[in-house]
Design brief:
This protein is mainly alpha-helical. 45% of the residues lie in helices and 5% in strands. It has 22 helices and eight strands. The chain has a two-stranded antiparallel sheet with strand order 1-4.
């Protein structure tokens, strides 16, 4: 233990700037022996101490300013295992989403969980939480499905949650939101900061673009703070508190978080005025109908994991020893990796809000880099050299970096003759479902003169008008090399087909194929060019 303490003191002094390179020029420290990651993973739960051998930290001198800081190397290897574990857990988002959507089709599952036992446990949970937890057959089916078919997923979540839950609990408590809401992040994203749904919801808490902007989450070509665990958790806590103020019920707040307050209000009306989630569930969208049961099932499994024999890898500590430094110049993950000897994969896990693995520099904004303490000290002590290296690398890079483009403004679009949702969505780089959600549209029907609120992902540039008469040399234009036709598949629409072939619009498809409306039949061959075949 004394050896570890001495290493920790030296690390603290170096990182805090209390010692300089000359001060430690001749210091030698005994460290825990470096052992393989596999050995650490095999022994995360072991009680026996790791064998100690003499390992000398290389002398750090002013002339050798990029020498690795390898103090507390064993602790950092634990952190590396953590990073790898979290990265593996990121693959479960689709599995969780499919489970929620398929909720109503869950069949009977044989499991050693007597109904009377489940009822008693649910009653205990109900007594100690602000949620309305009562036994019903549907909830029992979801719980049993999670315990059998999704057992591996739940065990992964038990492990990964040890890193995220302390952060969630702090922010939820700050806004007086029940701490049990931390389980919502598992249902939303399977704890994947870079998760992205089919309709564009992003991050651990699955914010749509417009909702994220409402809560000041920065979204640009480089940055998406919906993927930042800290910023997005603060926004989620604020949003949940607001929804509770509307409905005065945490179950309905959960339902509104998923489908929007408007859909919950409609469900209340259609149910005849009931305000209990289970009474209005049949009137909610399909996904929302499976959403609250999935949340309650997750809560149950976490509370009774030991009783069901669920296994997790116990973390030696709840979260990484990390800190942040504000960036003073544009820099890429590759450059940081080269200069401070940390892998790009680790940087991605610790800094998920940077979409292109590039941290921009914008005067007036504070973009931060999160690093393990062992690497942070090296970065801070060598900032000038690191930024000089980054600038030179960017200057000599043949491929220019993308320009920072922000979407801070919404627009009010007036529907004109010939407009339809697919056309407007393509014009501004957004999804049809997003336009419907932003404007509370129940169908795709529009009326001339109608005003739509849109949060554009790209500026609209009107297409240049071209003559309809084309020459022989220019009349055949295909978006994909060699592709002149598309065979309509089940589920295809003019919109989805146009998205598959860059440069081909819905109007092109109509003109080239003599289509006046939107209906197309599976098996039909559509021309992808102004050509004869």
């Amino acid at each position: 233990m004394e050896y570890i303490k001495r290493c920790a003191y030296l690390a603290t002094f170096l990182i805090g700037g209390l010692l300089n390179a000359q001060d430690v020029d001749s210091i030698q420290v005994v460290l825990l022996d470096t052992i393989s990651p596999q050995s650490l993973e095999d022994n995360l739960n072991a009680d026996s101490p790791v064998q100690k051998t003499n390992l000398i930290i290389p002398a750090i001198t002013a002339k050798d300013s990029t020498t690795k800081l390898i103090d507390l190397q064993t602790a950092y290897q634990y952190d590396s295992l953590w990073l790898a574990e979290l990265k593996r857990s990121h693959d479960y988002f689709d599995e969780m989403y499919n489970q929620i959507v398929a909720n109503d089709s869950i069949a009977e599952i044989e499991l050693d969980l007597p109904t009377d036992t489940l009822k008693a446990r649910l009653a205990t949970l109900n007594a100690k939480t602000p949620f309305n937890i009562a036994y019903n057959k549907s909830l029992e089916s979801v719980i049993k499905s999670f315990l059998s078919r999704k057992r591996g997923l739940m065990e992964r979540m038990l492990t990964a949650s040890q890193f995220y839950f302390p952060l969630f609990e702090q922010e939820l408590d700050n806004y007086n939101v029940p701490l049990e809401m931390k389980y919502l992040a598992i249902v939303e994203s399977a704890l994947n900061p870079r998760a992205r749904s089919r309709v564009g919801a992003t991050g651990i808490w699955q914010f749509m673009y417009s909702t994220g902007k409402m809560y000041d989450l920065d979204v640009s070509s480089y940055v998406d703070e919906r993927s930042d665990p800290i910023a997005s958790t603060k926004a989620a806590a604020k949003y949940l508190a607001k929804l509770h103020n509307i409905f005065n019920d945490w179950d309905l707040a959960l339902a509104a978080y998923n489908s929007g307050p408007g859909n919950v209000n409609k469900a209340i009306r259609r149910s005849g005025g009931y305000k209990n989630y289970w009474n209005i569930r049949r009137n909610l969208p399909r996904e929302t109908a499976g959403y609250v049961p999935a949340f309650l099932a997750t809560m149950y499994i976490f509370e009774y994991a030991e009783e069901h024999g669920l296994q997790k890898i116990n973390a030696p500590r709840a979260y990484f020893e990390t800190d942040t430094v504000h960036i003073k110049s544009l820099i890429t993950f590759d450059q940081i990796s080269n200069m401070v000897d940390i892998s790009v994969e680790e940087l991605k896990v610790l800094n998920p809000s940077y979409k292109l693995n590039i941290i921009p520099y914008v005067p007036g904004k504070d973009y931060a880099l999160r690093l393990p303490l062992q690497h942070l000290g090296k970065f801070v002590n060598n900032e000038e050299q690191i930024y000089a290296f980054a600038k030179e690398a960017i200057t000599t890079n043949e491929k220019p970096l993308p320009q920072l483009a922000e979407n801070n403004e919404r627009i009010r679009y007036k529907v004109r003759s010939g407009d339809y949702l697919g056309k407007i969505a393509a014009r501004y780089g957004v999804g049809i479902s997003q336009i419907k959600r932003w404007n509370g549209l129940a169908s795709n029907n529009l009326r001339i003169g109608q005003r739509l609120t849109i949060y554009p992902r790209k500026p609209y540039t009107p297409a240049k008008t071209t003559a309809k008469i084309t020459t022989t040399s220019t009349k055949t234009t295909t978006a994909v090399a060699g592709a002149k036709t598309h065979t309509v598949q089940s589920g295809d629409s003019l919109w989805t087909i146009s998205r598959k072939y860059p440069g081909v619009s819905i109007e092109n498809l109509r003109e080239w194929n003599g289509i006046s409306g939107n209906k197309i039949k599976p098996g039909t061959k559509l021309k992808l060019c102004n050509c004869s075949s």
